[in-house]
Design a protein that fits this description.
6 helices; mainly alpha
Length: 158
Protein backbone atom coordinates (compact mmCIF):
# COMPACT_ATOMS: atom_id res chain seq x y z
CA UNK A 1 0.00 0.00 0.00
CA UNK A 2 1.26 3.46 -0.89
CA UNK A 3 0.24 6.56 0.99
CA UNK A 4 0.05 8.60 -2.22
CA UNK A 5 -2.67 6.27 -3.52
CA UNK A 6 -4.94 7.72 -0.83
CA UNK A 7 -3.80 11.34 -0.86
CA UNK A 8 -4.82 12.05 -4.43
CA UNK A 9 -1.41 13.49 -5.23
CA UNK A 10 0.48 12.64 -8.38
CA UNK A 11 3.76 10.83 -7.61
CA UNK A 12 5.64 12.40 -10.51
CA UNK A 13 4.39 15.86 -9.49
CA UNK A 14 5.59 15.36 -5.92
CA UNK A 15 9.03 14.00 -6.91
CA UNK A 16 10.53 17.51 -7.07
CA UNK A 17 8.94 18.37 -3.74
CA UNK A 18 10.48 15.27 -2.14
CA UNK A 19 13.93 16.03 -3.61
CA UNK A 20 13.74 19.59 -2.35
CA UNK A 21 12.59 18.45 1.08
CA UNK A 22 15.59 16.08 1.18
CA UNK A 23 17.84 19.09 0.58
CA UNK A 24 16.03 21.07 3.28
CA UNK A 25 16.38 18.15 5.71
CA UNK A 26 20.15 18.03 5.17
CA UNK A 27 20.40 21.80 5.57
CA UNK A 28 18.42 21.75 8.81
CA UNK A 29 20.51 18.90 10.21
CA UNK A 30 23.76 20.83 9.73
CA UNK A 31 22.12 24.04 10.98
CA UNK A 32 20.92 22.18 14.09
CA UNK A 33 24.44 20.94 14.81
CA UNK A 34 25.85 24.44 14.39
CA UNK A 35 23.27 25.75 16.87
CA UNK A 36 24.29 23.11 19.42
CA UNK A 37 27.89 24.29 19.10
CA UNK A 38 26.88 27.93 19.55
CA UNK A 39 24.88 26.97 22.65
CA UNK A 40 27.76 25.03 24.18
CA UNK A 41 30.56 27.46 23.36
CA UNK A 42 29.05 30.94 23.72
CA UNK A 43 30.97 33.30 26.00
CA UNK A 44 30.84 36.94 26.99
CA UNK A 45 28.41 39.44 28.46
CA UNK A 46 25.43 38.09 26.47
CA UNK A 47 26.04 34.51 27.60
CA UNK A 48 22.81 34.02 29.53
CA UNK A 49 20.59 35.53 26.84
CA UNK A 50 22.25 33.78 23.90
CA UNK A 51 22.82 30.43 25.62
CA UNK A 52 19.09 30.22 26.28
CA UNK A 53 18.12 31.52 22.82
CA UNK A 54 20.38 29.05 21.03
CA UNK A 55 18.73 26.23 22.99
CA UNK A 56 15.30 27.48 21.87
CA UNK A 57 16.53 27.59 18.28
CA UNK A 58 18.01 24.10 18.24
CA UNK A 59 14.87 22.66 19.86
CA UNK A 60 12.81 24.36 17.15
CA UNK A 61 15.16 23.04 14.44
CA UNK A 62 14.88 19.50 15.84
CA UNK A 63 11.09 19.70 15.61
CA UNK A 64 11.29 20.94 12.02
CA UNK A 65 13.73 18.15 11.12
CA UNK A 66 11.19 15.59 12.31
CA UNK A 67 8.34 17.29 10.44
CA UNK A 68 10.35 17.48 7.22
CA UNK A 69 11.38 13.81 7.45
CA UNK A 70 7.78 12.76 8.11
CA UNK A 71 6.56 14.82 5.16
CA UNK A 72 9.13 13.11 2.91
CA UNK A 73 7.78 9.75 4.10
CA UNK A 74 4.18 10.84 3.56
CA UNK A 75 5.01 11.80 -0.02
CA UNK A 76 6.57 8.40 -0.70
CA UNK A 77 10.22 9.24 -0.19
CA UNK A 78 12.77 7.93 2.27
CA UNK A 79 14.53 10.62 4.29
CA UNK A 80 18.30 10.43 4.46
CA UNK A 81 19.43 9.61 7.96
CA UNK A 82 23.24 9.54 7.83
CA UNK A 83 25.11 12.66 8.77
CA UNK A 84 27.73 11.87 6.14
CA UNK A 85 24.96 12.13 3.52
CA UNK A 86 23.78 15.45 4.96
CA UNK A 87 27.28 16.88 4.79
CA UNK A 88 27.58 15.92 1.12
CA UNK A 89 24.49 17.85 0.04
CA UNK A 90 23.89 20.56 2.63
CA UNK A 91 24.40 24.11 1.43
CA UNK A 92 24.78 25.17 5.08
CA UNK A 93 28.33 24.45 6.14
CA UNK A 94 29.54 23.19 9.48
CA UNK A 95 31.12 25.75 11.76
CA UNK A 96 33.18 24.96 14.80
CA UNK A 97 34.14 26.54 18.07
CA UNK A 98 32.31 29.83 17.61
CA UNK A 99 32.16 31.50 21.03
CA UNK A 100 31.48 35.11 20.00
CA UNK A 101 27.83 36.11 20.10
CA UNK A 102 27.96 38.43 17.11
CA UNK A 103 29.68 35.77 14.97
CA UNK A 104 27.10 33.15 15.98
CA UNK A 105 24.21 35.53 15.26
CA UNK A 106 25.67 36.40 11.85
CA UNK A 107 25.90 32.71 11.01
CA UNK A 108 22.31 32.14 12.17
CA UNK A 109 21.01 35.07 10.11
CA UNK A 110 22.94 33.88 7.05
CA UNK A 111 21.50 30.40 7.57
CA UNK A 112 17.97 31.78 7.78
CA UNK A 113 18.52 33.83 4.64
CA UNK A 114 19.39 30.63 2.80
CA UNK A 115 16.65 28.51 4.45
CA UNK A 116 13.95 31.08 3.74
CA UNK A 117 14.94 31.16 0.07
CA UNK A 118 14.85 27.36 -0.15
CA UNK A 119 11.51 27.19 1.64
CA UNK A 120 10.00 29.71 -0.78
CA UNK A 121 11.18 27.56 -3.70
CA UNK A 122 9.73 24.38 -2.17
CA UNK A 123 6.49 26.21 -1.39
CA UNK A 124 6.19 27.08 -5.08
CA UNK A 125 6.96 23.49 -6.17
CA UNK A 126 4.43 22.10 -3.69
CA UNK A 127 1.80 24.55 -4.89
CA UNK A 128 2.34 23.45 -8.49
CA UNK A 129 1.96 19.81 -7.36
CA UNK A 130 -1.30 20.58 -5.54
CA UNK A 131 0.38 19.68 -2.24
CA UNK A 132 -1.39 22.08 0.10
CA UNK A 133 -0.06 20.37 3.24
CA UNK A 134 3.57 21.06 2.32
CA UNK A 135 2.56 24.59 1.33
CA UNK A 136 0.94 25.12 4.74
CA UNK A 137 3.93 23.62 6.58
CA UNK A 138 6.41 25.88 4.81
CA UNK A 139 4.15 28.92 5.11
CA UNK A 140 4.13 28.37 8.86
CA UNK A 141 7.93 28.07 8.87
CA UNK A 142 8.27 31.29 6.88
CA UNK A 143 5.93 33.25 9.14
CA UNK A 144 7.87 32.19 12.21
CA UNK A 145 11.31 32.65 10.66
CA UNK A 146 10.63 36.11 9.24
CA UNK A 147 9.63 37.32 12.69
CA UNK A 148 12.67 35.67 14.24
CA UNK A 149 14.99 37.31 11.69
CA UNK A 150 13.48 40.68 12.54
CA UNK A 151 14.06 40.04 16.26
CA UNK A 152 17.63 38.82 15.76
CA UNK A 153 18.41 41.86 13.63
CA UNK A 154 16.93 44.14 16.29
CA UNK A 155 18.96 42.38 19.00
CA UNK A 156 22.15 42.62 16.93
CA UNK A 157 21.83 46.37 16.41
CA UNK A 158 24.25 48.23 18.63
Amino acid sequence: MKTLDYLQLNASATDNVVKSLQQLLADFQVYYTNLRGFHWNIQGPDFFVLHSKFEDLYNDAAEKIDEIAERILTLGGVPANKFSDYLKISKIKEVGEVNCGSEALKNILDSYKYLIGEERTILSLASEAGDEVTVALLSDYLKEQEKLVWMLCAYSTK
